[in-house]
Amino acid sequence: MNILEKQMVENMENLKKLGVECYKYNFVFTHTIKELIEKQDDFLEKDIQVKVAGRIVSERKHGKVIFWDIKDQIEKIQLYIKKDIIGEKKFEEIKYYDLGDIIGVSGKLFKTHSGELTLFVNEVEILSKALKPLPEKFHGLKDVEIRYRKRYLDLIVNDESKKVFLKRTQIINGIRDFLNSKGFVEVETPILQPIYGGAFAQPFVTHHNAHDMTLYLRIANELYLKRLIVGGINRVYEFAKDFRNEGIDRTHNPEFTQVEFYQAYADYNDMMELVEDMFLKLVPEKKIIYQGKEISFEKPWNRVDFYESLNSVVGEDLKGSSVEKLKSVAKKFNVDIEGKKTFGKILDELFSELVQKKIVQPSFVVNHPIEISPLARKHREKDGVVERFEAIVFGMEIGNSFSELNDPLDQKERFLKQIEERKLGDVEAFVMDEDYVDALMYGMPPTGGVGIGIDRTVMLLTDQDSIRDVVLFPLLKPEK
RNA sequence: GCGUCACUAGCUCAAAUGGUAGAGCAACUGACUCUUAAUCAGUAGGUUCGGGGUUCGAUUCCCCGGUGACGCACCA
Is 0.80 surpassed by the pTM of this model? Predict the structure, then answer.
């Protein structure tokens, strides 16, 4: 414990000696600070007594007068405390209050000579005593490691950070409202799954004692939601925490949030329009600035055909070519395909390096190779590709969608292909889900499905360049 | 997992080539009844991320380890 903390503990002990309870059970306030600021004209005119609570964040002492700023959520208000008004005894007591303490006050609003809205305090009491000092008032808390580890400090001190997280909630609410208004039904599906599926990823593995069985934390909820489509919940969605046992970087956290939604009788074209409309709902002004670039969500977004765009960059037709061909193209264009063996994986790498990275404005990459899309149905006209889109903004994949594969026999074959890939050493290939194929056997209507990455969407709409700045408690190693 | 960089007081940051570790804010004492990054006078505060080495002497140079940021790899 350092000296500052000792002094704060001493202050608490001194308050106890005066018979002051340092941790109150509640405080009935009449207004939030935000309300005081918004309705100040009313309060100034009518001379109304109000009660507010907040944390002391700065102090200016003048002998027998004290100015404190208290803060509740984001808003601050100045307090004016005079010894003659609150009394000698109270004035002695508040000497032991520290910056960081949470207090409740009552008084009347007025404006100082310099015009600042201020509460003229006639009663003050401590509601919760702080025993550690806050970061500095002017420079705030910059150390990113402390900001992530002790997010509460970040939130107390850095309003910009707090605003990002409040915006995150608004975005999620906006998506939920949008889907509800279209008749989608929100459901909950298992996080602990005996068979994982719905994405290419390695899972976290855990163990259930009572059944003595291995369970996996979900990497996606796709296969469960489509079972619900089979069951006749024709418009269904879920905000899902998914878990993928992979590396961490600016756009990846091992646990992340996706919203997946499925609509019976729709195809991927319908879903593109739905996504466009959803973003217009989230961004009514239609334009944002992300990392200094203007991004427009105006309809329609660009449609970028997977093979057409890639072929035009490399100057030859890669569809139906060979692994050897792809390797020579990779070499020619200086794309690192180390560790990628299959046709699909190399192709995907070429695409993301040569096409996707350069996409800035909201775009749908459409009609992906069948090799990398085992849950999407074959394109109605084009060979070798599926009806699929990925929503790309600023080079970042924020959504993925298919005309869902509802042919059980085709689906079974795709699973079997995946099992072959796994045997060839692809640890992220799908595992067989017999029950899912069984569900399709009972008949699934034609269906369009979409997954939207919430964290990345929040990054875009709050202009953050790291996923850690939009996840309240990003995964970090323990300090020691 | 690999590479580069960072880690100094509660916070934000300094300390040429190796030479007693400093400032601002915060804290403490005193003055001050409209201040607002209040002001003025004084005081205190450190395992320089941890461990080893070189050296008369290490925040500084070398080695090992920790955590983080960034890049690469893997992925959404």
Answer: yes
